[in-house]
Model the fold of this input.
Amino acid sequence: MKIDHSLPLEYSTQENQMKILGFWIFLGAEIMLFATLFASYFVLADRTGSGPAGSSIFELTPVLAETILLLTSSFTIGLAIHAMRLGRTKPMLVFFGITLILGLAFLGVEIYEFNHYIHVGAALQTSAFTSILLTTLGTHGAHVTFGLVWGLFIMIQIKKRGLTPQTANKSFIFSLYWHFLDVVWIFIFSFIYLKGMM
Done:
């Protein structure tokens, strides 16, 4: 395996470059998945039947907490990749760990939020609106959960093997995934919560 030392470690082999390209293609498919969910949400947002509307169930405090947690985690994963490029394993692992802790806190708030929705009668089967709302939020939450498990495995590999072209490549691809989840959340925050609260 030929390593090009003039490139960042995550791009240093042809295999690594192909993996990054492949992941961008995968993210294209993920964009289509969330675009379909958003399109469905916009069609069904007013179909509340006898159930509650967004304006009566959405709470600003947990939504702001989720947004701050996820945006901060996007910043910390950026710091982890910066430390990785400087060859500093320990700070990288610290920022990686902080990212996962923030992601876990985000999930905790989201679980609280789901409990609140069910408590106020906004379950999956209540109306077309609640069904697509919980499906969209749940799909994003499932992606965050997967990211937490994936990130933990990457941290374990870096702890065992150190920074190699392979572990750097996995870390960089994970950071792309995490930033993507952040962008999706900004759309959820803007077009589901803020619009729904108006």
Observations:
- The two ends are 57 Å apart (CA to CA).
- The chain has six helices and no strands.
